[in-house]
Amino acid sequence: MKRQATYRLHFVQARRISCVLCKENYTYLLRNTGSGMAEANVVFSDDAELQREAKLKALAEVERACGPQPMGRARCPHCHLLQPWMHVTPMFAVGVACVVLAIVCLLVAFVVAQIWNWPTAGGVAGALALPGLILVALAPRMADKPGPQPEDTEDPGYTDARFMGMLEENPSLRNWALAQGLDLDPKVQWLNMGLLDLGEAKLPIPKGLSSEACLAALNRVF
Hints:
The chain folds into 2 domains: 2-84 and 150-221, no CATH class; 90-142, no CATH class. The protein is 43% helix and 19% strand.
């Protein structure tokens, strides 16, 4: 037998990027979770050491997620463009719909087979597949439209002026995320991972509010 330990770190990070269309900088919020799991044989395991190993793995995940790789989603507040790597493409929407349909049909077939028999399960799954295929055909409508979309008010980003004004009023990214409508689980502690500034000209923020400084502080705690 093996003993396991799991640890999760929930965080909110501000990310500043340059728009590919208008070249203006803007900032958006990203919420994410770093998870770590450790396991060992029951005879030789130590609970404290297992927990520490799980914490270190979760910390490594947070460091990776806070890096410069493209993540998150927000429209440029200047030209209203959703960056190309943020797009939900028609092909992706169809793929997700197909996977969901397959999972639902398999689960329903399995449950029906346990109650009655597999031939009945096959018939029920087939009956579900027909309306499901119609939903798959409609899936491309869930994709994002290319180009600037001024009428789309979802997933807004912050201009530099607005971001700096909010920073002066309240440096808590968690409060900003709640004000923006992000769903943050109130049962867990959300870490403030600061600002990752990927813009060409850097913002003059206090050094302690950068993602680098927040990660360093988190490492000292662990």
